[in-house]
Structures are given as structure tokens and as C-alpha cells.
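Q: My collaborator sent me two sequences in one message, no labels, and asked for predicted structures for both. Can we handle them in order? The first one she listed is below.
A: Yes, handling them in the order given. First sequence, followed by its C-alpha cells:
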Amino acid sequence: MGSAKRRWRWLLALAVMLALVITLALRSWPSTPAPVTVAARAAPAIPDKTSVALPPLQLPLAAATVMPPVPQVQIATPHDKHALVMPTAAVRAGSNRFLDGKWRARPAVDSPLTGKLPTLRYRLYHGKGTANLTQADGVRCSVNVEAGLMQSGNLVINSRTPARCSDGSRYQLPELICTPMGDDAAAQCIGRYGNQTDYPMMMTREKK
């Protein structure tokens, strides 16, 4: 009886020691590390060139500098000192006294149909006078003329009838029309023929 109790106690002590050894072994045994979840790093987004919004352009980018206009220098057109000048005061008064004397009206261009146009010579006094010309073949023509200022201010010199020529023929003189250009500029003149063809003319004084 006594030996059975001792055996039981010894087995119990052995079981306790075995349990203690197992417990210590389990604690000292390296545990399997828990799996670490690594968050995947997202690749950087590449901006779409077509969807990039540019900042609005603010105008003006700089203060605008307005340059003052360059003053235009009025250059007087040179003209023959004997060229016809229609004084402003005389034109306004309707006086043609400035036209008294001898004048020569020379075409500035040649006619493409008749060639060289003849030069006209006027002798005027108080709006009346005569006109003479010499044609290319030497035939001379003459006719009475009248000069007057129109309401527009233009000077008109014309004849009522064709000129009589030395060979018995008749020659229709052009109607001379001059436009005043001021006190310091030559008048602009044209010769208007019967077919309404205009030719520029240069009118200069020959002798008073």
C-alpha cells in the first residue's frame, strides 16, 4: 500500500515536470512570422499632353506704349514761276483780272490717236481775247475766246466757234478748264476736246 502511493506521487511529479518542459519548449520555439502585407506602390500617373489645362493668358503682358504719330511734313511741290496761280481772294470775288496778259497752254502728254497736240497761245484782257495755234504741218489757226470763273471756282476758257485756219480749214479748240490749288501752287488745267477726252495742260504766262 505504501509503495503504491510513492509510485503514484512519483508519476505525478514526472507528469508535472514533463508538462513544464513541454511548456518551456513551446515558448522558446521560434514562431513563424506573420505574413507582412506590403502595399503595392502605384506607378506615377503620366499626364496626358492633350488634357493638360494651360493657365489663361492674361493680357496685356506688359504695359502698352503708344508711340505718337510721326508728323507729316508738307513739302511744297515746285512749279514754274510763270505757271498760272489762281489767287484765292480773286476766285472768291469772281474776278479774272489775274488772267490779263499772254499765256501759253502746252499739253503735258501726246494724244495716242493724233500724236503731238498743238500748243495754244492766249491773249486775254478782262475775260475776252484770242487764241492762236500752229499745227504740225505749219497751218496756223485763230479764234476769239472768252474766260470766266464758274461757281465751283474753276476757270474756263473756250470759244463759241471753231478756229479759222490759214489753209481754209476749221479747227475745234479744246475747252481749257483750270482748278485753283491755292495761293502758292500752280493751278491744275486740262484740255477737254469735243469727244469728252481730257488731257493735262501746262499753262504759263508769256508776257503781260
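Q: And the one she listed second?
A: Here it is, processed independently of the first:
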Amino acid sequence: MPFNLDKFVASPSVEELDSLKKSEIVKVAKHYGIEFQPLMRKDEIKRYVLEYLVDESILPSTVLETAITVPTDNTFELKRLEMEMNKEIRLKEMEREREKEEREIQMQREKEAREHEFRLKQLELGVIKASDPKIGLDTGGFDVSKHVKFVPKFQEDNVEKFFNHFEKLGEQLKWPKDKWSILIQSNFTGKAQEVYSALSIEDSMDFDMVK
């Protein structure tokens, strides 16, 4: 037969309380406004209900003598569980903070990389003027974009051969040496491209440094 809370409240008894499930005892406790911890065992909550009913003179005090005695170590167990939960919450908060910091650092790195790449693209297109105090580059009428197509294909497995080929070509076509680093980086791939992107603007303009 389904538990009827109203029927129990109208005529409470120890016998019926003993027959209830934990979820049903919880309903009784909530009805009477009895405070308890959700992690408490069924017997503990039932004890609280009995004490309340005795205090309110709804049941005789003798019912407490026959009630199940709650083990004294339950309080310590609940405290331990509470401490573990608090510890887990703190660890999760610390993890979230760490992830947030990592995201911010990554975003800053990506922003700097984009700015660096944009700067290099400007150099490739010859749009940075000699008056730029950071670079001091004189384009001198040399159109980088027209000469990029002559740069040999980058050979990651034979870098030395690639640079030798490029230098000979640069001499033959009379490319201004201060434009070599701009020309050569246009064909970089893989690891070489990553290394070049990590250089400062000043170093990226120095062919010997790039090489």
C-alpha cells in the first residue's frame, strides 16, 4: 500500500515509522520542519522524527528507549564526507582558475603571433615606409611582391642547399640584400615557418639571423 503522509500525521506510530522507507521518512521529517543532512542514514533521520514527536508530546518518551541507537561515529563520518566534498569543490575551482589563466596566455600568444604575421605581410607588400622607427626599412622602389615568384621552393630536408640556391639567385637577379629575409620567408613551411614567426621584427629582417 502506498505511503499516505496525511494518514501518518493524523495518527503517528512507531510501528508505522519503522515500516517506512528512507524517502518516506524524509517526507515526514520535512512535513514537521525537522532539519537533517541528506547524507544521513535512514535510522538517523527516523531518530530525529521520534525525538520531535516526543518533544511535541505526540508520542510517549518510552519510544526512544526502544528506538535504534545511532552509532556515535556517524557524526565523524558525515564530517569526513563534508570535508571531502569541500576539498573536491576547492580543487575544481583551482582547476577552473588554472584553465582560465592558460586560455588567457594562449589568447595573448595568438594575438602577438597575428600582429607579427600582419607586420610581416606589410613588409612583403612594401607598405612600411622608411620613416618607421621600429624597422627603418627603405623600400627604395624595390617591389617585393614582383620578385617573390622567383624564390626557389623551400626544402625542409635540405636547408643548406636551399639557402645556397637562394643566395646565388639573389646575386644573379641583384636583389637588395636587405630584402632577402622578406623574400625567403615567403616560401618557408613547417618548422622553418614556426621558427621565423617566433623571431622579433628586427631579427626577422636580418638575413644572416634568419639563415
